[in-house]
Each structure stands twice: as structure tokens, then as C-alpha cells.
Specification:
The complex is a heterodimer of chains A (about 350) and B (about 775).
Chain A (H helix, E strand, L loop, with lengths): L2 H11 L3 H12 L4 H9 L4 H40 L18 H15 L3 E2 L5 E2 L1 H4 L10 H5 L16 E2 L5 H10 L3 E10 L10 E11 L4 H16 L6 E8 L2 E14 L2 E4 L4 E11 L1 H6 L8 E8 H9 L12 H7 L16
Parallel strand pairs in A: 1-4
Antiparallel strand pairs in A: 2-3, 4-5, 5-10, 6-7, 7-8, 7-9, 9-10
Helix pairs in contact in A: 1-2, 1-4, 2-4, 3-4, 5-11
Chain B lengths: L1 E3 H7 E2 L4 H10 L3 E6 L2 H4 L3 E10 L7 E6 L5 E6 L9 E5 L4 E2 L4 E2 L3 E3 L2 E3 L2 E2 L27 H4 L6 E5 L10 H10 L4 E2 L17 E3 L7 E8 L8 H9 L7 H13 L4 E4 L7 E5 L5 E3 L5 E3 L5 E4 L4 E4 L3 E2 L12 E7 L2 H11 L4 H8 L6 H16 L2 E2 L3 E4 L7 E3 L4 H6 L5 H10 L3 E3 L2 E3 L10 H12 L22 H15 L3 E2 L5 E2 L1 H6 L17 E2 L4 H13 L4 E11 L4 E14 L9 E2 L2 H14 L8 E4 L5 E11 L3 E9 L1 H6 L7 E6 L24 E9 L5 H9 L6 E12 L2 E10 L8 H17 L3 E2 L2
Parallel strand pairs in B: 15-18, 30-33
Antiparallel strand pairs in B: 1-13, 2-14, 3-13, 4-5, 4-7, 5-6, 7-12, 8-9, 10-11, 16-24, 16-25, 16-26, 17-24, 18-21, 19-20, 21-22, 22-23, 27-29, 28-29, 31-32, 33-34, 34-35, 34-39, 36-37, 37-38, 38-39, 40-42, 40-43, 41-42
Helix pairs in contact in B: 1-5, 5-12, 6-7, 7-10, 8-9, 14-17, 19-20
The chains are: A alpha+beta (about 350), B alpha+beta (about 775).
């Protein structure tokens, strides 16, 4: 057995990195056997060196490589052993993140603002504790008008120095007057907000949300109203088969007045907007009564326009499939998590107004 | 307003079906809520003749009949009716027929051992009346085998129309017929008005003392009549209209009211003392009305009274005392005009609705008093007999007709619908308007039509709103502009930030209980007519509603509740937009990594508050923290965040323990309220940001630990450190806090950012000295 064979056997037999290191030191260390052979070349004559040098160098190369290979093998084995001890059960639950929700009423209001922004309508607001002038009289509902009794008004306890008690606004229509007073004409706006009526069952709550639309200009007709409502409802329900039916009706603040029904159909056992299997009422609307325009400080001979109002909660129910209004105002987190919207479900025209 | 098809056809010559009529009514603004046909449930019943009637072998009270129902066979029926006998004609239900009055479906069955193949029915079993003493007996000429409903005139669909408050004319069947005729669904028949010759002067004098409330009171007496039951046809129609037949006189006045929209009242002359006067009610006066309730009257109410007492709440409801009865022989008929506004006010004040009120309130036709009186008199004489007196007339109804100067082009300009002038004229004339050039005279029964816009509606509704062309609004050139206001944008940002941080948005009532409001300093606005005591005071804070919602959730077993709401607080000066949040239950549930569940604390509320304020655009580093947010909060565990001492942006922390008790707040709840209208608007420098390039040199950090005196807040010390060198110090972060033997130790990591050149040791030493000096000024000392 040559020196070389002996050495390679020892390398192969090294059980671990420290044994391997010992072999390396005995061969290639300062006092190692191969180091000694290399040193011996210096004392040889040129002839002897010429014959021995290639052999010794080849030996060193062979041993160095064998050590490197063995080292790599041992290191891999070591790593395998280590990794085997480091396993964790990744089926364990990760830290729970939090996800909150946006209320359907807020979401639908954002959707409406987005749709109407595209039609050039801005968003206006007004007080919920309203004077009887703005809530009734200015809207062509004088005292003792039967329509006042129609609306189950909440009255507030009178305050000192007031001629008559204020009311909780029964509709968002007072914003029409306030907006015309503030902005004059022409004007296009929507006014969403809370409204109040003394009423309570599965589809009526004493507080709910409405959205008012108002367009005042010089040559606005019932035809514009029709187009606006069709366009809005198609965009809101995201269906092209939304069909509207306008019916003559009566509101003190509009003339002519129209109630608007939307066609529904049954899909997968649920009633959805679209098609014409039946009709349901969704909107009240009409051309603004000349007296209302005058009450808001504009000349009805010059300006005319339309207004419409609808329930935001009702729109939400029709689009997103709730069938009871009362849980809207209960704050039950189970309901909110089911019917609510994610923070990033922001309605956009490019991404779609629904979520 | 309910009426039947046959009733409508008294006034309208038409071939249209009930469905066509209903669709048209809805299309012209008389919304049909329902068309029902009581005959549908009775359709299977046929007219049958009893051929034989034998005693039941096993039962004394039963008979075994054979019946001919027109099928050509003799059907065996067991019958318990005492009046069943051979030869009589009645109403038969075959096996499989549903009997509405007893809620059963007939089957072939053996009754006491004898097979019965159907049933002869009583009136009650068919829901045609209360009679169950025997089976229905029909005249001998009733056609055996025919459908009973057709024979009995029951096949008469009932329309239920929702009449809007403006349409006085549609509160009578005739007015509805007129609209249908104008809409092309038939011809309006002429109205037959009898000529009544009074044979003696009216014995009951009539005077008006309140011409404003009752401008006209017409009437007459009819003596020697017999007040029995009204005829079958009238009862059938009244029942279909939802009226209970009472007596001939009452039924006649009800019939005329529904038929012609003309309410009237009949007084029993025997119960009157002297003449009738329309006058203001006197203070303290009371009347027992026909609904058997006593009403206290006020002077703005118009009443009809004799010398002794009030007999009628004018135009709303008659009095019990002088009401007609079966014994009545002489009546005084009242056909009056009451002022609509007064009727509305009286009805609202008394909380009293009636069919008469709903008509007088809309306004009855002021030109139809004499004819109405004649028609009513004619009906009474026909049905009850009697002798009419001459008519009496007190006052004058307001019959002046309104004339509108109408430019027919308005129909296009306002209604958007192109209707030729000739056609417009025709529509208006069919509705009773008189058209002479541009002068349109409004008929006496349409006080709702006041101006050109109303005429446009008349033309448009009869033409059909479906004919209105959909016309696009003019669109501003270019991409749609943004329209949201600053406050709307602010609300959207904080809303979606809160949702992104794990909070659920609730919407709670704007009104709360007095107790809840009192716990939050009391409400400024109280609802005078609340729907319940829990919903009475306009909230001065959003927290009571959210706390109640949180409690409900916890009661339902929710382990953790994070709720927020954006809404208004209703204070004396205005309504303030506010975001409130409540955190209750577990902040973190027990976990395999984290151990036991952890409750929320005030710092969770602080974290949400700061994050939301930052989303609102507030420079949160500039906020100052003032301990103790006020009486509703835990004095040592709450704070307000302010910009300057006066502008309070938010309050947060633990709620006051007593509040937890008084409004049953969850014990471990923390909360915050952000006053969104105090958030300052950011400076508007356009969209471009200030110029910036990241510093080339790396920042260095140094740690400082101080022993701080009692009462010095961490925030105050942190601000002092940051202020020690505003150029070099770009960040200060508290990273350690503990009670040492020397006192409370607070440790800060200070970030120093070199500008052009790296700091020298001297420079860093100088900054450190300044930091220590600043801390020492507050009584802190560097921990050795």
C-alpha cells in the first residue's frame, strides 16, 4: 500500500469533521507527511527534483481534493441531521390578523357618490334637526297640509326663543332648499343622510337613510329625470336589464310628480332587480314645484328642474340581499361581518361600483 | 278606496277587463294596490236541486239526500241542515272542493255508515254571511248545474286604489270612471239626478255661525220613512268596499260617499231640539261620536249643534245621540261644505280618521251640493219611502272657478313630451276642464290644479309617462370632476382606515334614552313624541349607542368587540360630525404562542385614535396630550389630544367606573371619540410634495436613561429631548420604562442625523449635553 492509498483511506474513513481535520493536519499541516515530502524537494538535485516533483504535487492535489470532497459530504450530513431536529408544525395557526368592515349604508353612499360624480352631481349635506320651514313649508306643505300628517313626524321639545318646535327631518328634501339658497342655479347635487319617521316594522325603522337628487337649470324636463334615474339605477345595480316604470303620483314639492318602480325577477329563488316579472317601488320624484323654487329664492319663470329621493338602506337591501332593515342599526358584529365591506372595497368607476 | 267592477260600470261604459282597467289606473296615477275577486274561491260551487231527502238510518238529526248538480247523476249527500228537503234548490260543493268558511277540503266519506259525496252549503260556509241555521235556499228558477258565483252576482272583481292626498275627485267611483274615460278606456255615462219636489217646508231650520269652517250647509227633512235594511246589491257593494252594512239610511249615505265622493249625514229629527247650527265648538264642549268615543272639542273645530248639544264633528263624524236607528221615521239630511284646512286640523288634533274626513280634507266638489242632496233624497225615498221637505240652503259653497293661462308648449318644455295642442285640449276637456284658447278653466272637483305645471301633469299622465322620452343630461366636457367636499373625504378616509385596522362600522340610533344622555352630560334636544323612551334624546355623544351595541355583542357571546361609528352629535349650537369607537372583550384571544387572553387597555384606544387622526391628515407629532378627558372618563386613565390648548381633536381612554355602572357598559371597555369638525384643513400647496432627497450620511443613535420625578409625563420629557437640537435630532423613541430603586426610569433612543459631514465626538458630546440639560430642567436626571 502506497502512502497515497493509506492517506485516501484515512480521509474516506473520517467519521466527522474533526477526524477529517486531524487527517488534513497529518498530511498537509506544517509537520504533515506531504508537507515533508514537498520540503524534501528542496534538498534534491535538479534531476531528482524533476522526477519527484510531479509525483509529490499530484499526491498533494489528490489528497487536498479528497479532503474537500469528504468535508462537503460530512457537512451535508451534519446539516441534514440539524435540519431534521428543526422541523416545526406549520399547521399551527399563525398570529390572527384583524379585519374590520364598512357598513353597507356607508358603502352604498360611496357607490352613489361615485356614480353621480360621473354625472356631474356634487354631494351636499344639511341638518337633521330641521325647522318646519325647511322640512315642510318651503316644500309646499303648509301647516295642516295632509301630507304633513302622512310622514309621521318626530317633533322636538320647543326651545326658548323659537316660534315653533323643530322637527327631525322626515326626508332629505330640505337640502334642496338649502342648496338652492347657498349655490343658486344651475345646480346638480345629491344629498344623502339620516332621516326620521315615527314608524317601526321589518321594513320601517324610526331612523333610516335617504338620498336626494336635485337638478336645476333652464331647460330640464321630465325626460331628463327619466334618463337620470335609468342611468343611475343601471349603474348602481350593475345590470343592463334594469327596467323602470314611472307612474304619476303626488308629492307636494313636485309637479308633475312620479313614483318610480323597478322591475324585478326571481333568480336562484331570490328576488333581484332586473327583468320584468314584477314591479317594486324604489323612488319618488318629479319636476320641482314652482312654489318650491320661489321659496328657495330663485325665479321659477327662469329656472326649473327635477328632484328625486330614495332610501339608501332599501337600495342596499335590494342590491346586497338583506331582507330585514332592523339589523342595520343593531351593531351585531356577526351581521356586520357578513354584510359589511372590506376597507379596500372602494367603489370606483374603473373597478366597478359594487363589491 | 275600494269598489267593484260592476260599480265602476255604473259610471263607465267599457268593455275593458279588470286587468286592463287596473293597469290603466296605475298608469294614470291612481295606483291599484290589489284587484281581488271573492268569486275565485267560490268558483267550484254549483247550483243543485235536492231530489230526495230521507232520514238517516243511524242518526236522528241527519238526512240522506240525493242531489242533481247538473251532472246527470243523482249524488248521495248526507246533510244535517234542518231546512233540507226534496225539491229545494241550493249550493253544492263536490268532493275536492275547499270550503272557505270551515277551512276544510271535502272528501268522499262515510257519515254514520252512509257514504256522502259532497255537501250542500250554508251561507257561513261560503263566507257570505253569518247564517248557519240551514243551507242556502235559492229561488226555484235558479239554473241547476250553473256556477253559483255567476248566478249570485259574486263574480265582481274588487279594486283597491291608493288615492293620493291631492285627488279629491278620485275619492268617488265616478271620479275614477271619469279619469278612465279620459284615458280612453270607455265612456263616462251621464249622471242621473232626480227632480225632488218638497211637499212641505223643512221643519228643521239651518244656520251658519262659522262660515269660515262651514261655508255652506244644504239639507232637507224626509218624514214618514222606514229605516230597514238596505237592498242586497247595495250591501254587496258596500261590503266589497270594506263597509259594514248597518241600516238603510246609513248605508245610503255611505254608498253616495263612495259612489260620488259626497259625504252626508242624517240626523234623527226626533232626537233634535230646535234647528241645526254650524258653529265653532265652545271651550269644554264634548261629544260622544258614532265610534262610541268621547271627544273634547276646541274652538277651532266646526260642529253641527242644536239648541242643546253638539250632534256632529263637522265633516268628520256624527254624534251618537242623534244617529239614526231602526226606529227612526223622520230624518234631517245634511249636505255641507267644510273647509279642508279646518277639517285637517281638527282631525289631526282629535286623532280621528274617517271616510268623511278623508274626503272633506281633500276638498269635496263645492258645486255638487244640490245634486248630491237630490241623489241622496232619491235613494232614501226609493229604499225607505217617506216624504221629502223643501230643501234648505244656508251659506254658499266656494264655487269660483280658477282659470289658468296655459301655454301648451309647457307640456314639452316641462314634461319633455310632445303632445299636439289639439290632443292636449281633448285630454283636458275629457277631464272636465274648459279650454278657450289659452284660458283653461279648472273643474270644481279639482282644487289641486293650481297652475300650468299641474296641467302639464294632467296631459302627461293621461298620455302616459311611458311616452316621455328618456333624455340625457348635458355632460360637461372632459373627465368627470371630483365632487366630494373636504369633510366627506375626511370621513371616507377615517372610515376605511378604521375598517382596515380591524374595526367594524356600526350605525346606531341618533336618539338615546334620557339616562344614557344624562350619563354623557345630558342632551340638548329631546323628541316630544318619541317612539319609545329608549329613543328620546338626540345623542350628545356616539358612545352610549356603541357601548350598548358592544354590550349586546358580548352578551351574545362575542369574545372581542371592536366597533366604530361615524355620525353626528347633536349639541346646542350645531350637529357635529364625530367618529367614536369602543373596544371591549379580549384584545387578543388566548393562543398557543401568546398564552392567556389579553384585555384591551387605554393604549389600544390611543393607538386607534392616533392612527385615525393621522389618516385624517393631522400631524400627530404636534399633538399635545392633556390628561383627564372629563367627567365621563376615568380621571387617571384618559386624555384629550389637542393642537394648542383649545383645539380638542379627540378624547380616549377608559370610561369612568361610575358610568360603567350607570349605563351598564362592559367592564373592560375602552373608547375614543374623534371630533372630526375640529381637524384642521391641511395647507393646500397643490399636489406636489416639498423637495426631498434622502440624506447621504447614515444616522446614528444614542441611548439616554433618566430618573424622572413624580408627575412628569413621558410625553413632556420626550418633547424636551426632541427640542434640544431641532436640526440634528430627527427621532426620539421611548424604549424602556421601569421603577428602579432611585425612582422611575425612562430610557430613550435618540436618532441623530448628520447633514453634510459626519458628527465629530465633540459634536455628539455637545448634543448629549443639551439633551441632559433639557431633561434636567424638568427635574429629570441622567441615570448613572
Amino acid at each position: 500500500m502506497t502512502d497515497a492509498e493509506t492517506m485516501l483511506d484515512r480521509i474516506a474513513a473520517a467519521e466527522n469533521l474533526s477526524e477529517l481535520e486531524a487527517v488534513r493536519v497529518s498530511a498537509l499541516g506544517k509537520a504533515g507527511s506531504i508537507t515533508a515530502l514537498l520540503k524534501s524537494l528542496g534538498s534534491m538535485d535538479s534531476e531528482g527534483r524533476a522526477s519527484e516533483a510531479p509525483r509529490i504535487h499530484a499526491l498533494r492535489e489528490q489528497v487536498t481534493q479528497a479532503i474537500a470532497e469528504r468535508k462537503s459530504t460530512l457537512e451535508n450530513a451534519e446539516l441534514e441531521r440539524k435540519l431534521a431536529t428543526e422541523a416545526i408544525d406549520l399547521s399551527l395557526p399563525a398570529p390572527e390578523g384583524l379585519s374590520g368592515t364598512v357598513h353597507p349604508v356607508s358603502q352604498v353612499m360611496d357607490e352613489l357618490a361615485e356614480i353621480f360624480a360621473d354625472l356631474g352631481f356634487s354631494v351636499a349635506e344639511g341638518p337633521e334637526i330641521e325647522t318646519q320651514w325647511y322640512n315642510f313649508s318651503a316644500l309646499n306643505m303648509p301647516e295642516n297640509h295632509p301630507a304633513r300628517a302622512m310622514q309621521d313626524t318626530f317633533y322636538l321639545e320647543p326651545r326658548e326663543g323659537e316660534d315653533e318646535p323643530r322637527v327631525l327631518r322626515t326626508h332629505t328634501s330640505p337640502v334642496q332648499i338649502r342648496a338652492m339658497e347657498a349655490h343658486g342655479a344651475p345646480v346638480r347635487l345629491i344629498a344623502p343622510g339620516r332621516v326620521y319617521r315615527s314608524d317601526s316594522d321589518a321594513t320601517h325603522t324610526p331612523m333610516f337613510h335617504q338620498i336626494e337628487g336635485l337638478v336645476i337649470d333652464r331647460a330640464i324636463t321630465l325626460g331628463h329625470l327619466k334618463w337620470t334615474l335609468e342611468t343611475f339605477l343601471k349603474a348602481f345595480f350593475e345590470r343592463d336589464d334594469v327596467v323602470l316604470r314611472m307612474r304619476p303620483s303626488y308629492f307636494p314639492f313636485t309637479e308633475p310628480s312620479a313614483e318610480v318602480d323597478v322591475g324585478w325577477s326571481i333568480e336562484k329563488g331570490r328576488r333581484v332587480v332586473g327583468g320584468q316579472q314584477g314591479w317594486m317601488e324604489v323612488l319618488g320624484s318629479g319636476m320641482i314645484h314652482p312654489r318650491v323654487i320661489a321659496n328657495a329664492g330663485l325665479d321659477p319663470a327662469e329656472w326649473q328642474g327635477f328632484a328625486f329621493g330614495t332610501g339608501v338602506d332599501r337600495l342596499a337591501m335590494l342590491k346586497y340581499g338583506m331582507d330585514d332593515l332592523r339589523p342595520f342599526f343593531d351593531g351585531d358584529i356577526r351581521w356586520l361581518k357578513h354584510y359589511g365591506f372590506r376597507a379596500l372595497d372602494v367603489p370606483t368607476l374603473s373597478g366597478g361600483v359594487g363589491a | 278606496m275600494k269598489f267593484t267592477l260592476s260599480w265602476l260600470k255604473e259610471h263607465l261604459e267599457t268593455d275593458a277587463s279588470a286587468e286592463e282597467l287596473a293597469d290603466k289606473l296605475t298608469n294614470i296615477g291612481l295606483e291599484v294596490e290589489e284587484v281581488s275577486n271573492p268569486a275565485e274561491a267560490l268558483a267550484p260551487f254549483t247550483i243543485a236541486k235536492v231530489l230526495t231527502a230521507e232520514k238517516h238510518p243511524q242518526a236522528d238529526k241527519l238526512q240522506v239526500l240525493t242531489v242533481d248538480a247538473g251532472t246527470g247523476e243523482a249524488i248521495q249527500v248526507v246533510c244535517g241542515a234542518p231546512n233540507a228537503r226534496a225539491g229545494m234548490i241550493g249550493v253544492f260543493g263536490a268532493p275536492g272542493t275547499y270550503i272557505p268558511g270551515s277551512d276544510i277540503t271535502l272528501k268522499v266519506a262515510a257519515i254514520r255508515g252512509v257514504e256522502s259525496r259532497g255537501m250542500m252549503c250554508s251561507a257561513r260556509e261560503l263566507e257570505l254571511g253569518d247564517d248557519h241555521s240551514g243551507i242556502i235556499e235559492l229561488p226555484d228558477d235558479a239554473p241547476v248545474g250553473n256556477a253559483f258565483t255567476r248566478y249570485a252576482g259574486l263574480d265582481d272583481p274588487v279594486f283597491d286604489v291608493n288615492v293620493t292626498p291631492n285627488r279629491q275627485d278620485a275619492m268617488g267611483v265616478r271620479g275614477i270612471a271619469r279619469d278612465l274615460a279620459a284615458a280612453g278606456l270607455g265612456t263616462l255615462k251621464p249622471l242621473a239626478v232626480p227632480q225632488i219636489q218638497g211637499s212641505y217646508p223643512c221643519p228643521v231650520p239651518v244656520t251658519i255661525e262659522d262660515p269660515e269652517g262651514c261655508p255652506a250647509f244644504f239639507g232637507r227633512a224626509i218624514r214618514g220613512l222606514k229605516n230597514g235594511t238596505s237592498p242586497e246589491w247595495m250591501q254587496r257593494r258596500l261590503k266589497a268596499a270594506g263597509q259594514r252594512p248597518i241600516s238603510a239610511l246609513v248605508d245610503i249615505t255611505n254608498y253616495a260617499m263612495i259612489d260620488l265622493g259626497r259625504p252626508s249625514h242624517a240626523y234623527d229629527i226626533a232626537k233634535l231640539s230646535g234647528g241645526l247650527t254650524a258653529r265653532d265648538a265652545r271651550p269644554g264642549e264634548k261629544v260622544l261620536a258614532l265610534n262610541e268615543k268621547v271627544y273634547s272639542l276646541e274652538p277651532f273645530m266646526t260642529v253641527i249643534a242644536d239648541e242643546r248639544q253638539v250632534h256632529d264633528i263637522g265633516g268628520i263624524m256624527g254624534g251618537e245621540h242623534s244617529g239614526v236607528s231602526q226606529a227612526t221615521t223622520d230624518v234631517m239630511l245634511e249636505v255641507a261644505y267644510f273647509t279642508p284646512e279646518r277639517i285637517a286640523r281638527t282631525g289631526q288634533a282629535l286623532g280621528l280618521t274617517s271616510d268623511a274626513r278623508s274626503r272633506f280634507e281633500r276638498g269635496v266638489d263645492p258645486a255638487f251640493l244640490d245634486e248630491g242632496l237630490a241623489i241622496l233624497t232619491g235613494l232614501i225615498i226609493d229604499i225607505c219611502g217617506g216624504e221629502p221637505s223643501a230643501a234648505v240652503h244656508a251659506g254658499t259653497p266656494p264655487v269660483e272657478k280658477r282659470v289658468i293661462d296655459f301655454d301648451f308648449a309647457r307640456t314639452k318644455a316641462l314634461g319633455g313630451i310632445d303632445v299636439p295642442e289639439m290632443r292636449q285640449k281633448e285630454i283636458l276637456e275629457n277631464l272636465g276642464f274648459e279650454v278657450a284658447g289659452n284660458a283653461v278653466t279648472v273643474p270644481s272637483w279639482r282644487r289641486d290644479v293650481e297652475g300650468p305645471a299641474d296641467l302639464v301633469e294632467e296631459v302627461a299622465r293621461i298620455t302616459g309617462y311611458d311616452k316621455v322620452p328618456s333624455t340625457p343630461l348635458e355632460r360637461a366636457p372632459g373627465v368627470a370632476k371630483s365632487t366630494a367636499t373636504r369633510s366627506q373625504l375626511l370621513e371616507r378616509r377615517v372610515r376605511r382606515t378604521a375598517a382596515a385596522r380591524g374595526l367594524d362600522e356600526a350605525v346606531t340610533w341618533s336618539f338615546i334614552s334620557e339616562g344614557e344622555a344624562a350619563a354623557f352630560g345630558g342632551g340638548e334636544w329631546t323628541v316630544a313624541n318619541p317612539i319609545s323612551e329608549d329613543l328620546k334624546v338626540m345623542r350628545p355623544s356616539l358612545l352610549p349607542g356603541l357601548i350598548a351595541a358592544a354590550r349586546r355583542n358580548l352578551d351574545r357571546g362575542a369574545p372581542s368587540v371592536r366597533l366604530f361609528e361615524i355620525g353626528r352629535r347633536y349639541l346646542a349650537d350645531a350637529e357635529h360630525p364625530t367618529l367614536a369607537l369602543v373596544l371591549a372583550g379580549e384584545r387578543r384571544p388566548r393562543g398557543w404562542e401568546t398564552g392567556k387572553a389579553q384585555p384591551f387597555d387605554a393604549f389600544d384606544a390611543k393607538a386607534e385614535t392616533l392612527a385615525l387622526l393621522e389618516a385624517a391628515g393631522v400631524a400627530v407629532d404636534n399633538l399635545q396630550l392633556f390628561p383627564d378627558a372629563g367627567q365621563t372618563w376615568h380621571p387617571g386613565r384618559s386624555a384629550t389630544l389637542r393642537l394648542g390648548p383649545k383645539t380638542i381633536l379627540a378624547a380616549f381612554g377608559e370610561l369612568h367606573p361610575s358610568l360603567k355602572k350607570s349605563i351598564d357598559a362592559p367592564a373592560d371597555a375602552v373608547a375614543a371619540e374623534l371630533y372630526l369638525d375640529t381637524v384642521p384643513s391641511g395647507r393646500s400647496n397643490g399636489r406636489a410634495r416639498p423637495a426631498y432627497a434622502p440624506p447621504a450620511l447614515q444616522a446614528v443613535t444614542r441611548d439616554f436613561a433618566f430618573i424622572v420625578p413624580a408627575g412628569l409625563t413621558a410625553d413632556t420629557l420626550l418633547r424636551a429631548i426632541r427640542g434640544a437640537d431641532k436640526a440634528a435630532i430627527t427621532g426620539v423613541r421611548l424604549f424602556d420604562r421601569f421603577e428602579s430603586t432611585d425612582g422611575l426610569s425612562l430610557a430613550f433612543e435618540v436618532t441623530l442625523q448628520p447633514a453634510e459631514k459626519s458628527f465629530t465626538d465633540e459634536q455628539i458630546g455637545e448634543i448629549s449635553r443639551r439633551i441632559i440639560d433639557a431633561a434636567e430642567k424638568l427635574g429629570a436626571r441622567l441615570r448613572s
